[in-house]
Amino acid sequence: MAQRGEAETLPLHPALSRVSSSSSRARAAAAVRPGPDPLLVICRCFSFVTSLTAILCVAVNVLSAVRSFKDGSDVFDGIFRCYAVVVAFIVVVAETEWGFVIKFWKILEYWAGRGMLQIFVAVMTRAFPDYSSNQKELVLLQNIASYMLLACGLVYVISGILCIGFLKRARQKKEITREQAVKDLELCNYVLAGPSLCGGHGMI
Fold it and tell me: In angstroms, rounded to a whole number, what is the distance separating the alpha carbons of residues 181 and 109?
C-alpha cells in the first residue's frame, strides 16, 4: 500500500509536463484567436466589388480613347479618356489600401474623400457618350461601369459621414494587434515545445 501511495504521489515526467504546458498554451492561442470580424469581411467584399468596377471603368475608357484616336473624330475626347484611365487606376490602387499610396494621398484614407473620387471617375466615364449605331455596345458598357462606380462612391460618402470608415480602421488595428499576439504565442509554443518533445522521445 505504501508503494502504491508513493507511486500516486510521484511527479510527472519533465517532458510530459512540458507537453501538457505546451498544449495548454496552444489552447490559449486558440482562445485568443476569434472568428473574423463581420464588419471587416463586409468591407473587404465591398472593396473588392469597387475595385472590379473601377477596373471596368479603366477598360471602357481605354476602348473609348483607342476609338477616338483611331477614327480621328474627336482627339479631345481621347485625351479626356486618358485622364479618366489614370484617375480610375488611382481608385483601384486606393482600394488596396497600400501604405505607400495612403502616405502621399492622405485623403484617400477617409471614405468620404475616396467616395468623391469614385463619383468623379463615374462622371468622367459617363461624359460625352457616342450614340452612333456602331458603338451601342461601348455606350452600354460606359453606362454600366459609370452607374456601378457612382453607387459605390455614394455608399462610401454616406458611410464616411456616418463614421463607419473610422470604425473599420479601429477594428482593423485591433485585428492586426490580435494576430500579432497569436503569432508571438505560437512562436513561444514552438520554441518551448520543440526541444522538450525531442528530449522526451530520447528519454523514453
Answer: 26
Report the pLDDT value the prediction gives residue 51, as an integer from 0 to 100: 92
What's the Cα-to-Cα distance from 20 to each of 84, 143, 181, rounded to whole Å?
61, 63, 21
* Residue closest to 88 by CA, chosen among 54, 63, 56, 115: 54
Domain residue limits, the chain: 38-162, 166-204
C-beta separation of 124 from 80 below 8 A: yes
Nearest 5 degrees, angle CA 123-CA 124-CA 128?
100
Alpha-carbon distances of 41 from 16, 36, 154, 192, rounded to whole Å: 41, 7, 20, 34
Q: Are 122 and 147 a contacting pair, CB within 8 Å?
A: yes
Kindly state the cell numbers that stand for 52. Answer: 472590379
Residues 89-113: tens digit of each pLDDT:
999 988 888 777 777 778 888 889 8
Phi and psi (nearest 5°) for 10?
Answer: -70, 140
**Cβ proximity of 51 and 95 under 8 Å:** yes
Of the chain, the percentage scoring pLDDT greater than 90 comes to 26
133-184 residue pLDDT tens: 567 788 888 889 999 999 999 999 999 899 888 888 887 788 777 666 666 6
3-state SS of 47-94 is: HHHHHHHHHHHHHHHHHHHHHHHHHCCCHHHHHHHHHHHHHHHHHHHH
